[in-house]
Design a protein that fits this description.
Layout (H helix, E strand, L loop, with lengths): L2 H21 L9 H9 L2 H7 L10 H22 L2 H11 L5 H30 L3 H50 L4 H11 L3 H14 L4 H11 L3 H16 L4 H57 L2
Helix pairs in contact: 4-6, 5-7, 6-7, 7-8, 7-12, 8-9, 9-10, 10-11
Membrane topology: Multi-pass membrane protein
Subcellular location: Cell membrane
Keywords: Cell membrane, Membrane, Transmembrane, Transmembrane helix
Length: 312
């Protein structure tokens, strides 16, 4: 790398430092009118959404506290650029994460920064060792940042799917426990409290949250309907609707719970059969390309050696 590239890198670092120092001047950090009025007009439940002081996202809490204003500003900018806050909030609820949209945007920013830092280190190494053209390397760094942001969003989608799978696995057992409690003479509310206190898992967690909402002023029917709204599982939504109707109208519930549990078990069996059918083709690959050639080799190798020995 020539001396000019050293000067360009040094100028870039100095310019970045001066820019950060200028933007943190007291003249440019005057609070906006919205920020000054926000503590007086926001609800108590909404303050946590904008307050990141009680949460750390990296293993370096001290450095994170120093950079927290920049993380907050970067997360807000990322939200304005990407949008889709309603969809993200919905996915966070489906994943069971106690996280606001702003906190998720900060995590996306950190993932992108990690990708950018890795690409920047590789780019500097290439510049020093081979003197590569810096324009493609700069594009690589920007692409690494974008990939890091998208990977965090993909990770959230995977968390939603894994939670849905766990809830479907827990559903038959929870439904049977509710049916046994109702058959034993307990009401729907008492049965829900018993199952929520005894069992563990994502479904029991949702029931505990619904019962806590019912204790804070919301009706039990509304709390149960919110469980169906927070999840993306159709069977669970029907199950919660059945419990809500039974609580509201006093209809029998045990037979309905048993039938729904049996339907979920049958659906699980069908999924296993379908997965097994799809895996048959994948199982043929090692058999055809590994086991069968080795078997043929062991069968014909002794004969080939014998023919070579008896041939003149």
């Amino acid at each position: 790398m020539t001396f000019s590239w050293y000067g360009a890198l040094l100028g870039l670092l100095v310019g970045l430092g001066l820019t950060m120092a200028i933007f943190r001047l007291p003249v440019l950090r005057r609070p906006k009118l919205d920020d000054r009025l926000a503590p007086y007009i926001r609800e108590a439940s909404d303050r946590r959404v904008y307050d990141l002081s009680d949460r750390t996202f990296t293993p370096f809490p001290t450095l994170e506290r120093i950079l927290r204003p920049y993380l907050r500003s970067g997360g807000s900018m990322l939200e304005r650029v990407l949008g889709g806050g309603v969809v993200i909030r919905r996915r966070l609820q489906q994943a069971g994460l106690d996280m606001a949209v702003e906190e998720f945007r900060v995590e996306q920013l950190i993932w992108g920064a990690i990708g950018f830092a890795g690409a920047l280190a590789a780019s500097l190494l290439l510049l020093v060792s081979r003197g590569t053209n810096p324009i493609p390397l700069l594009i690589l760094c920007v692409a690494a940042f974008v990939i890091g942001v998208l990977l965090r969003d993909r990770r959230l989608v995977e968390q939603v799917k894994k939670r849905e799978v766990r809830m479907m696995a827990e559903f038959p057992t929870v439904a049977d426990m509710l049916a046994l409690s109702v058959t034993a003479g307990e009401g729907p509310v008492a049965a829900l409290e018993r199952v929520a206190n005894v069992s563990k898992g994502e479904l029991a967690r949702e029931f505990r949250f619904a019962l806590s909402e019912a204790r804070t002023g919301m009706t039990l029917v509304q709390a149960l309907e919110s469980v169906g709204d927070r999840t993306n599982v159709a069977i669970l939504a029907r199950f919660v609707d059945g419990i809500a109707i039974a609580v509201e109208r006093g209809t029998p519930l045990a037979d309905v719970l048993r039938a729904q549990a049996a339907d979920v078990r049958e659906a699980g069996k069908r999924e296993l059969i379908e997965a097994g059918g799809k895996k048959e083709i994948g199982m043929m690959v090692p058999i055809v390309f590994l086991v069968l050639p080795v078997t043929v080799l062991f069968a014909f190798f002794p004969g080939a050696i014998g023919l070579q020995m008896i041939s003149p």
